[in-house]
Amino acid sequence: MAGLCEGGNEPSGSLKAIVIALWFKMPHAVAKPFGFTERMEEVQVVVVGAGAAGVAAAARLMERGVKDIVILEAEERMGGRIHTVLFGDAVLDLGAQWVHGEVGNVVYSMANRYGLLTASETEIIESPYIESTGNVVNSDIAEKIMGILTLIHKAGDVLLKDFKASLGQYYNAVFQRKMEEEFSTSHSKLGRYFLDWFQKFENSIDGSDSWFETSGRGLTEYWDCEGNLLLSWKSGGYRRVLDLLMVCINCTLSVEPRFSCTIKS
Ligand SMILES: Cc1cc2nc3c(=O)[nH]c(=O)nc-3n(C[C@H](O)[C@H](O)[C@H](O)COP(=O)(O)OP(=O)(O)OC[C@H]3O[C@@H](n4cnc5c(N)ncnc54)[C@H](O)[C@@H]3O)c2cc1C
C-alpha cells in the first residue's frame, strides 16, 4: 500500500511542502497545551500542524515505530489548506482541489494507484471574466491582460533568480510597465482588477495573505510536474489525500490531533 509510508520515497511536486514537515523532536517535557501549561507531559515527538505535512510526518514516524507522538493544531479541524466540505450530495473544496501533474507528484502517485483521479473538464484560461458589477469583460482585452500576467510569471524564472524584494513588488512594477506598453493609459482600472485577482490566485498557492509578504525569489522554486495539470478526484475531494496519508502499510494513524493549540514561537 501507499505513498508516504513507504520508506525512502521523498515527496515532491505540487505538494512539495510536505517534506518540510513541521515536526521536531522533544525528548523531554512539553507543555499541554502550549501556552496554557497546567501540567507537563513527556512525549518523544511533537508535530506542529495537522495539515498534509504534519499528517504525513506523523504517519511516517509511526510507520517507522515511533508511537509517542502528539499533533498540535491551531484550528479546530484537520487539513490546513486542504478543506473539503459537504455541499448537498456533493463535496466542495475550499482549499486544494486539483492534482497538478503526474511525474514526480506524490499526490498523483498515491491516488492514481487506486484509480481515484479523473481528467478535469475545467479550462481556466477560456473562462469568461466578469467584473463585480456583472459586466462581462471583453474577451480580447481579457486575453491580452492575462497574456501580460502569464508573460510576467514566466519571465520570473529568470528575473527573480536574484531578486531581493517581494513577489508583489515584482508583479506591480512589471505589470504597470507592460500595461502601458500595451494599452497606453486605457484599461488601467480593469488592469488593477486583474492584478488583484492574480494576487489572490498566487496567495492561495503560497498560503499568504498578501504577496508583499512572500519572497519574489520563491517563485523560482515552484515547478510544474509533467502530465495532466488539472486532474480532479472522482469522489470525496482533496480530503482523500489525508485518508491516504493516514492509512499506511503497517499503521493507521491513531493519533487524534489536539485542536485549538497554537504553538507560539
Ligand atoms: C485556496 C487554495 C487552493 C489550492 N489549490 C491547490 C490545488 O488545487 N492543488 C494542490 O496541489 N495544492 C493546492 N493548494 C495548496 C495546498 O493546499 C497546500 O500546498 C497544502 O495543503 C499545504 O499543506 P501543509 O501541511 O504544508 O500546510 P497547511 O495546509 O497550511 O497546514 C499547516 C497546518 O499547521 C497549522 N499551524 C500553523 N502554525 C501553527 C502553530 N503555530 N501552532 C499550531 N498549528 C499551526 C495550521 O493551522 C494548519 O492546519 C491550494 C491552497 C489554497 C489555499
Helix and strand arrangement:
Elements: E1 23-25, E2 29-32, E3 39-42, E4 45-48, H1 52-63, E5 69-72, E6 84-87, E7 90-93, H2 106-112, E8 117-119, H3 139-159, H4 167-183, H5 188-206, E9 231-233, H6 240-246
Helix pairs in contact: 1-6, 3-4, 4-5
This protein binds flavin-adenine dinucleotide.
Which descriptors would you attach to this protein?
6 helices, globular, alpha+beta, 265 residues, two-stranded antiparallel ribbon, binds flavin-adenine dinucleotide, disordered N terminus, 9 strands, single chain, three-stranded mixed β-sheet
Structural overview:
Helices cover 31% and strands 12% of the residues. With 265 residues, it is of the alpha+beta class. The protein starts with 22 loop residues before the first strand and ends in a 19-residue tail after the last helix. Residues 14-15, 17, 48-54, 72-75, 80-82, 95-98, 100, 204, 207, 261-263 line the site of flavin-adenine dinucleotide. Pfam families: Amino_oxidase.
